[in-house]
Each structure stands twice: as structure tokens, then as C-alpha cells.
Specification:
Layout lengths: L1 H24 L4 H15 L1 H16 L1 H10 L4 H14 L14 H13 L1 H4 L26 H20 L5 H19 L9 H27 L53
Helix pairs in contact: 1-2, 1-6, 2-10, 4-5, 6-10, 8-9, 8-10
Length: 281
């Protein structure tokens, strides 16, 4: 725990410097400084997000082949994992890609928590006349979420934004989608009744809501771009089983160099002849 806090200390210093700079240089309130800081962090994470989207799209495109490998080695879990790892490497798929943009945000989230927790003692005395409210209905962003009705409103908006960001997240499996849809409700109950007297300041919800809304916009843009581009044809891997061993519901994969079997010809079509005028009946 001490090592984790020592890692967060430099991040706290950077966040404090960034918040003070946004407040003094651009004249933003502390709440809007948090919003601007969140957008800056998400812009810095764009390269990781692009890698995440591309990897998840490739995983979705190769899903029938992956299911076929799982079915082929269903009785040998070790061999199945080995073949899947080789398949991921050949097709440049990162199974942990969905976590790429989330991992760097975890220390930022905790560091921002400590910054806002000590805000009244370490930062606010330097700016005694500064505004701690937001949008005219949040009185104090450093206060506990449950101390005012506005905190419950922001908590509801947070849950809705988290569900929306999960819905627009590209190419998820059903299991991942269900987990990410349930998590915000679990986290909401954790905030309302935190263990050990932990206080969650409103500023953290502002940070997390901004992150979720950014993800929603990113998902809408990604879906629009995917609709404009045609998917590339699937590349057959050396570990892809023949068409007789494909998973149920998956399209058969022909061996390299082989042409698909012609479709069986149907019965010849009967054509009725027209009777000539004047012909005997």
C-alpha cells in the first residue's frame, strides 16, 4: 500500500499543477478545470484507444475461426490456449485490448481522489475566493456525494453515462458487455455506502462522467466509420481447421488453393409453348 501511494505522489503533483494552471491561466472554475483535465487525459490516450478499437475489430472478424479452434481442442485446454495464442499473434490480435485505455486511468483516478480529498487544506487556501460550485446546482465539488441532492443527480447521470459508454463500446463479447453493464450499478451502491467512512467527492463523479461521455462520442464516431468501410476478407491461418471441423454456425473455410464446390444443378425449367393461331384443337 505504501509503495502504491509513493507511485501516486508524482501523479498527484502533476494533477495539482494542471488544475491550478487551468484555473489561473484560463480562468476556469475548479469543476470546469476537472472537465478540461479529463478531456486532455483522454486525448493523450487516443493512440491506445485506436489500438484497442482495431484489435477488437480484428477479434470480431476472426471470431468464427477462433470458435473453430476452441471446438477442435475442446478436450485439451492447454493445447487450445496454445493454438489461440499463436492465432492471436499471427493475426495481430490483443485479447487484453479492451483494458488498454482503462489501465492508465486507474492511477489518475486514485490520484485525483487524494487531490480533491486534501483540496480544502492544500489548494483552496491559496485561492480563497475561488468558486467550488458547478453549473449552478452543485455547491461544492470537494464535498461528499451524499451531502447534497445534487450528488444523487450526478450519480444517476454517471450510471447512465457508464451504461451508454458500454453500449457504444465496439465489438464486445456478450460476457464482457453484461459485466460492464452491471458494474456501474454495483459501484453506485459502493459510493452510497462506502466502507471505512470513505468520502467520495463530487469532483470524482465529474471526472468519471466526462470520461464516459467522451467514450460515448467515440463509440458513435467509430460506428459511423465502420459503416462506411467494407470489412476485409478473412485470412485463413495455418491453425484453422478444415471446413468439416468448423464450429456450428460458422462459415466453412476452404483449403488453400482449393475452389469452392459447385452448387448442384436444379431440375430443368419447363417452358410452355404458345399455340399458333388457326391450329386445330
Amino acid at each position: 500500500m505504501i509503495a502504491f501511494l509513493s507511485i501516486l505522489s508524482p501523479i498527484e503533483d502533476v494533477l495539482t499543477w494542471a488544475l491550478e494552471g487551468l484555473h489561473t491561466t484560463f480562468g476556469l472554475t475548479w469543476a470546469w478545470s476537472i472537465v478540461a483535465l479529463t478531456i486532455t487525459v483522454r486525448m493523450l490516450l487516443v493512440p491506445l484507444t485506436v489500438r484497442q478499437i482495431h484489435s477488437m475489430q480484428r477479434m470480431q472478424e476472426h471470431l468464427p475461426e477462433m470458435k473453430a479452434i476452441q471446438k477442435r481442442y475442446k478436450n485439451d485446454r492447454r493445447k487450445q490456449n496454445e493454438e489461440l495464442m499463436k492465432f492471436y499473434k499471427e493475426n495481430q490480435i490483443n485479447p487484453a485490448s479492451s483494458c488498454l485505455p482503462i489501465i492508465p486511468q486507474i492511477p489518475i483516478f486514485f490520484a485525483l481522489y487524494f487531490v480533491l480529498r486534501d483540496f480544502d487544506d492544500e489548494i483552496y487556501p491559496l485561492y480563497p475566493e475561488s468558486d467550488l460550485g458547478w453549473l449552478g446546482f452543485v455547491p461544492d465539488i470537494t464535498a461528499n456525494i451524499t451531502s447534497d441532492w445534487s450528488g444523487y443527480v450526478l450519480l444517476a447521470v454517471y450510471v447512465a453515462s457508464q451504461v451508454a459508454s458500454t453500449w457504444f463500446m465496439p465489438t464486445q463479447s456478450k460476457g464482457q458487455r453484461v459485466i460492464f453493464l452491471i458494474l456501474p450499478f454495483v459501484f453506485a451502491f459502493f459510493i452510497l455506502d462506502p466502507p471505512g467512512g470513505t468520502v467520495f467527492p463530487v469532483g470524482l463523479l465529474i471526472y468519471w462522467m466526462t470520461t464516459n461521455l467522451w467514450t460515448v462520442g467515440q463509440g458513435i464516431v467509430t460506428r459511423g466509420l465502420r459503416q462506411k468501410t467494407m470489412p476485409e476478407p478473412l485470412k485463413r491461418s495455418s491453425r484453422t481447421p478444415p471446413k468439416t471441423e468448423q464450429a456450428d454456425g460458422a462459415a466453412p473455410v476452404e483449403p488453400d488453393g482449393a475452389e469452392p464446390a459447385p452448387k448442384p444443378a436444379g431440375q430443368p425449367r419447363k417452358v410452355k409453348r404458345k399455340k399458333k393461331k388457326g391450329a386445330r384443337r
